[in-house]
UniProtKB/TrEMBL annotation:
<dbReference type="InterPro" id="IPR036871">
    <property type="entry name" value="PX_dom_sf"/>
</dbReference>
<feature type="domain" description="SH3">
    <location>
        <begin position="1"/>
        <end position="61"/>
    </location>
</feature>
<dbReference type="GO" id="GO:0000281">
    <property type="term" value="P:mitotic cytokinesis"/>
</dbReference>
<dbReference type="GO" id="GO:0070062">
    <property type="term" value="C:extracellular exosome"/>
</dbReference>
<dbReference type="InterPro" id="IPR027267">
    <property type="entry name" value="AH/BAR_dom_sf"/>
</dbReference>
<protein>
    <recommendedName>
        <fullName>Sorting nexin</fullName>
    </recommendedName>
</protein>
<comment type="similarity">
    <text>Belongs to the sorting nexin family.</text>
</comment>
<dbReference type="InterPro" id="IPR035703">
    <property type="entry name" value="SNX18_PX"/>
</dbReference>
<dbReference type="GO" id="GO:0005546">
    <property type="term" value="F:phosphatidylinositol-4,5-bisphosphate binding"/>
</dbReference>
<feature type="binding site">
    <location>
        <position position="335"/>
    </location>
    <ligand>
        <name>a 1,2-diacyl-sn-glycero-3-phospho-(1D-myo-inositol-4,5-bisphosphate)</name>
    </ligand>
</feature>
<dbReference type="GO" id="GO:0009898">
    <property type="term" value="C:cytoplasmic side of plasma membrane"/>
</dbReference>
<dbReference type="GO" id="GO:0030136">
    <property type="term" value="C:clathrin-coated vesicle"/>
</dbReference>
<feature type="domain" description="PX">
    <location>
        <begin position="259"/>
        <end position="369"/>
    </location>
</feature>
<dbReference type="InterPro" id="IPR019497">
    <property type="entry name" value="Sorting_nexin_WASP-bd-dom"/>
</dbReference>
<dbReference type="InterPro" id="IPR001683">
    <property type="entry name" value="PX_dom"/>
</dbReference>
<dbReference type="GO" id="GO:0097320">
    <property type="term" value="P:plasma membrane tubulation"/>
</dbReference>
<dbReference type="GO" id="GO:0006897">
    <property type="term" value="P:endocytosis"/>
</dbReference>
Length: 607
């Protein structure tokens, strides 16, 4: 079956990478997935480019046979000229989202065929440009060509689609095909039909129903497709994610090569002859000791790739964006601290730290090897091990090690824990923020008022010209100055103790926001297991099929429990370290206050 698109409107290309089209012309589609309202296709001459999805009708039909005049099928329905590629611009400039002058069809425009599906992967990073001016795409980030299929990107080669016979014949070393399609018959609610020729005497085959809500996390993550046996793909040894049984239950296999990464030297950079400015951060991983420079938009792109790829892993949230004041020193410092926390959690995660796209982000010098950087970027955006196929990469212990009731109890307990922790974190963050505000403004002002009052008393005493009162007057004035200094100490202290606590709380609030979706995937899988068991008890489903569903649910449960274990590990580590830091800074602070008061006290010894 060939996937084609017929143009319903004339379209004239105005940007590199687009192809023009005339009404009625058909082109082959590279993918049915639209890219921010654009489709990618190939015309009869083999030219590849983009055209608006709303201007075409997607057709699912067999390749047309040879026309009556004997013309080759590829030229059928293609008038002279057909789709013409837009000449490339002279300089190698960034590929920007098309800014064509056409107007899209009115709302309700009939697409025909199957509805276009939202693209889970962005083929062109330029379509993900953020709204802030510092996050716009630029030359060193994007171009109009796609080089993801070139060898060497992300340390691995691209694998073409192979049929079953090709897979059976063997492939590259360390690469094998996994499929979950063999043991489940699907029928109702959009499922695949049951086998056409079931063995005689087989039980009547019931189906495990699909979720009615196709926008649920369980569906969008690919968890449902995996559990229902629809995942199929090639898995390389390097893509395997191992869950092992530790002393406290399932956990991710440790990273054999742990590392850390520093983030320093935030520097304001410019381009376009000073018309655009941004902040660049220097990253130095300990396992390479080679510095690379990244902008916030690079972090943002990396986060989007990781969140898409790992549905059962809590990818830490990045520090929030800010539309104004991006170049103020306080904001740059705060963002850097947030990025340090983010990087710490990334490097500490056994799975995320070893992920190809993360290693590419840390090690590829985009400023000196632009081609390698773009190859890795495109490769990551075309990663096939996402959605349902991601779960094929999970390698877990024997399923007998899991009791579903115990798993459900642990998940429910963790769900209650995250709710309570989230509420407590919000309360602590509010309290700390309010207390810091009082220290910076209220406490400083009050202590300075006390100091001013003491100095006023000293000035009054100076009206007495007696020599024996001079020492007292000076001591009281010094006491007033000491209270002024204490007020300044209060104003500066939140940066030392409360701000780091609030930064940590913000990071964990991001983690806590991730877990409802992670839990939803596991709960959805467990629901399918219960439904299949009910069918078995009623004699409507073979035990083998139900066991397949349970095995795949166990895979998801192992990964979920491993992620929960990792969360608790880093939580204990982080809060232990942060509370120690907080109390140490409090002790140092009050020691400084005590020192100021003792200095004032000694002034009275000579009176």
């Amino acid at each position: 079956m060939a996937l084609r698109a017929r143009a319903l409107y004339d379209f004239r290309s105005e940007n590199p990478g687009e192809i023009s089209g005339a009404r009625g012309v058909e082109s082959s589609l590279c993918s049915e997935q639209d890219i921010e309202g654009w489709l990618e296709g190939v015309n009869s001459r083999g030219d590849r480019g983009l055209f608006p999805a709303s201007y075409v009708q997607v057709i699912r039909a067999p390749e047309p046979g040879p026309p009556g005049d004997g013309a080759p099928a590829r030229y059928a329905n293609v008038p002279p000229g057909g789709f013409e590629p837009q000449p490339a611009a002279p300089p190698a400039s960034a590929f920007q989202p098309p800014q064509s002058t056409f107007q899209p069809p009115a709302a309700g425009f009939p697409y025909g065929g199957a509805a276009l599906q939202p693209a889970p992967q962005q083929l062109y990073g330029g379509y993900q440009a953020s709204q802030g001016s510092d996050d716009d795409w630029d030359d060193e980030w994007d171009d109009s060509s796609t080089v993801a299929d070139e060898p060497g990107a992300l340390g691995s080669s691209a694998y073409p689609d192979l049929d079953g016979s090709a897979a059976a014949a063997g492939g590259a070393a360390g690469r094998y095909r996994l499929s979950t399609r063999s043991d489940l018959s699907l029928g109702s609610r959009g499922g695949a039909a049951a086998p056409q020729h079931p063995p005689s005497g087989a039980k009547s085959s019931a189906t495990v129903s699909r979720n009615l809500n196709r926008f649920s996390t369980f569906v969008k993550s690919g968890g449902e497709a995996f559990v229902l046996g629809e995942a199929s793909g090639f898995v390389k040894d390097g893509d395997k994610l191992c869950v092992v049984l530790g002393p406290y239950g399932p956990e991710w296999q440790e990273n054999p090569y742990p590392f850390q990464c520093t983030i320093d030297d935030p520097t304001k950079q410019t381009k376009f002859k000073g018309m655009k400015s941004y902040i660049s951060y220097k990253l130095v991983p300990t396992h390479t000791q080679v510095p690379v420079h990244r902008r916030y938009k690079h972090f943002d792109w990396l986060y989007a790739r990781l969140a898409e790829k790992f549905p059962v892993i809590s990818v830490p949230h990045l520090p929030e964006k800010q539309a104004t004041g991006r170049f103020e020193e306080d904001f740059i410092s705060k963002r850097r601290k947030g990025l340090i926390w983010w990087m710490n959690h990334m490097a500490s995660h056994p799975v995320l730290a070893q992920c190809d796209v993360f290693q590419h982000f840390l090690t590829c010098p985009s400023s000196t090897d632009e081609k390698a950087w773009k190859q890795g970027k495109r490769k990551a955006e075309k990663d096939e091990m996402v959605g349902a196929n991601f779960f094929l990469t999970l390698s877990t212990p024997p399923a007998a090690a899991l009791d579903l009731q115990e798993v459900e109890s642990k998940i429910d307990g963790f769900k209650c824990f995250t709710k309570k922790m989230d509420d407590s974190a919000l309360q602590l963050n509010h309290t700390a923020n309010e207390f810091a505000r009082k220290q910076v403004t209220g406490f400083k002002k009050e202590y300075q008022k006390v100091g001013q009052s003491f100095r006023g008393l000293s000035q009054a005493f100076e009206l007495d010209q007696q020599a024996f009162s001079v020492g007292l007057n000076q001591a009281i004035a010094f006491t007033g100055d000491a209270y002024d200094a204490i007020g300044e100490l209060f104003a500066e202290q939140p940066r030392q103790d409360l701000d780091p606590v609030m930064d940590l709380l913000a990071l964990y609030q991001g983690h806590l926001a991730n877990f409802p979706d992670i839990i939803h995937v596991q709960k959805g899988a467990l629901t399918k297991v219960k439904e299949s068991r009910r069918h078995v008890e009623e004699g409507k489903m073979e035990v083998q099929k139900a066991d397949g569903i349970q095995d795949r649910c166990n895979t998801i449960s192992f990964a979920t429990l491993a992620e929960i274990h990792h969360f608790h590990q880093i939580r204990v580590r982080d809060f232990k370290s942060q509370m120690q830091h907080f109390l140490q800074q409090q002790i140092i602070f009050f020691q400084k206050v005590t020192q100021k008061l003792e200095e004032a006290l000694h002034k009275y010894d000579s009176v």
